[in-house]
Amino acid sequence: MHFTLHIWRQENAHAKGHFEKYEIDNISPDCSFLEMLDQLNEQLVGDKIAHPVCFDNDCREGICGMCGLYINGRPHGNDDGVTTCQLHMRKFTDGDEIWIEPWRAKAFPVVRDLVVDRSAFDKIIQAGGYISVTTGGVPDANTIPIPKYVADQAMDAAECIGCGACVAACKNASAMLFVGAKVSHLGLLPQGQVEHLDRVRNMIVKMDELGFGGCTNTYACEAECPKQIKRQNIARLNREWIGQMFGRDRKN
Amino acid sequence: MVAVLGGFLLIFLLFHMSANLLILLNDGGAAYSAFCNFMGKTIAIRVMEVVLFGALLLHAVVALWLAATNRMSRPVGYHKPQKSKTHTTSKLMMWSGILIFVCLIMHFYDFYMVKIGLVKGEYMVKTEKLQDEEMSGIMQLANQMQMTPSDLVAAMKEEMATMGGDDEEADNYIESITAKIKVMDIVNNAYTNGNISADKKWIHRLNAEEKAVIKEAFPDSDVEPDFYYMARKKFKVWHIVLGYLVFFAVLFVHLTHAFPSAFQTLGLNNYKYNRAIEICGKIYTWVVCLGFAVIPIVIFLSE
Ligand code: SF4
Ligand code: FES
């Protein structure tokens, strides 16, 4: 297959970026989007045309959340429930023009080319996305005193890989889906319930502080999340944000 | 904040719409006028009016502020327009909101400003407030002699002139009733032109001068704006009807997102009830917008 690529090139965080146009040929429909970029990079380096295009990746099987490109107007490209590394070139038609951009958000500054700094997510996690005490090894599922549907919901929320597609998709660059997923997956289970309200508060305060936008219920995040995290997690987050205003029996 | 205030406005809209449907009753305005009178009189309602304005303004201000800060969360935009499958109406909230605000200004000019006396409209008054002994005495006399009240007074004046005497008492008396006589003429006119409600409680379609006359003769008569006939008159004009229909269409777009969105923001939903909330939202939106839209359409199409 043959493609015309328009790729965002940016020397470093402070440089002014621009789109560069590249032609690429001999792409197998079975290769992934990142493999296609590998092929491009080999071509760029081998022919001494330019520095290779920088992009984040690690597991290349949709579980680490490192990869993430804004492809033709959609985070993770034109497929539902996949990460960029899982996106296959057969999803495109031969001869397509493909525009590749980095995530755009105030909280996700561009580092270089298509790489953005997502440590804002880590800071949100550090603000409350943990359980303070060691709760021991993994208990047998049937020894945790919760109904199955709660376990299912916690598990679904725990699927979030922190890729940031929700922020990239949101017109407000809001991180509510991410925070909602984290709060749900920890707070629904007994081990995490104790600190639940504090966690909700601290993570939301941190999120606002870092410059993520507010949620206006557009649900672009839900549409683009590779792990199909549900908007109900945002509703839970909202509910519990209101709850923590009244429910925290603490002075600080 | 936006959701709580919006929820309050949603309840108001439903109320406003149901009340307006009274205009469609073909009772010469009896029911609707009684309703307007009640609304104008009750203290609690006047307080609510202020609260409502406050809520509306705050809703708009907070929403705009939110939109502004949200924009700042993405200083560098994308080159390619977003293609995610999303709820379009939610992205239009700000624009539909602004349009609604503009439409509301038109709406206030048409109706609310008349109430607070900034714009002239048509007025109505309760018949019972216009009755006293003098009035009914003269009315009876006029009826017996088959004259209009003003003719009667003119005749009386003439008679007195021919009698020649300068009967000051009589002069004064006539002077004192002229204002009331004018009112009687107005009432008579209303009867002949059919500007009286079916239950004979209201005299409708008074203009600003007539309002002034009545106010002079009966200072505590409470002449009120005649929304029933003002609506009927306005909705005969096609561009006003069109204006309002556009207004309701924009409102529809706004409400489509507003209803379920308020639940989401307040966290008052879950997997189980999401469908139900969405369906209720659809029903609410259709009922309110159609309910509003039906009024100008029916009035426009009726002869
Ligand atoms: S919620 Fe979905 S889109 Fe957002 S970070 Fe987690 S996995 Fe990525
Ligand atoms: S590289 Fe790990 S999710 Fe794509």
Task: Report what the structure shows.
The complex is a heterodimer of chains A (252) and B (303). Chain A folds into two domains: 3-111, Roll (Ubiquitin-like (UB roll)); 118-246, Fumarate Reductase Iron-sulfur Protein, Chain B, domain 2, CATH 1.10.1060. Chain A has nine helices and seven strands. Chain A has helices at 33-46, 119-128, 148-158, 165-169, 176-187, 190-193, 196-209, 220-224, 232-247, and strands at residues 3-9, 18-24, 70-71, 74-75, 97-101, 110-112, 115-116. In chain A, the strands form two sheets. A five-stranded mixed beta sheet of chain A has the order 2-1-5-3-4. In chain A, strands 6-7 form a two-stranded antiparallel ribbon. The relative contact order of chain A is 0.14. Chain B contains twelve helices and three strands. Helix content of chain B is 71%, strand content 4%. Chains A and B meet through β4, α8 and α9 of A and α3 and α11 of B. FE2/S2 (inorganic) cluster binds next to loops of chain A. The site of FE2/S2 (inorganic) cluster (FES) has 13 residues of chain A, from loops.
